[in-house]
Amino acid sequence: MDQEYIKKWLSGTLTEDEQLEFQQSEAYRELQKLDQAIQSFKAPEMDVEKELHGLKLKPQAREIKANWWKPIIRVAAVVLIGVLLFQYYPVLTRKLAPSIEVVQASRGETRTFDLPDASQVTLNASSTINFRTKNWEGNRSLNLQGEAYFKVNKGATFTVETDQGTVTVLGTKFNVKSRNSYFEVVCYEGSVQIKSESYQEIIAATEMFRVVNGTLIRSRDLEIEAPSWVDQVSSFISVPYGEVLKELERQYDVKIESQNIDLQQLFTGSFTHKDVKLALASITQPLNIGYNIGENQTVSLSGEAK
Amino acid sequence: MTEINPSDVCKESVFQEIFRKNAQDLHDFLYYKFGSENYPGDLVQEAFIKLWNNCSKVPPQKARSFLFTVARNQMLNELDKKKTVLKYQKQLSIDRDLETPQFKLEEREYMERLQRSIEELSEEQRVAFLLNRIEGKKHQEIADILGISRKAVEKRIYTALSKLRGKLEKL
Question: Is the ipTM of this complex over 0.90?
Answer without folding.
Answer: no
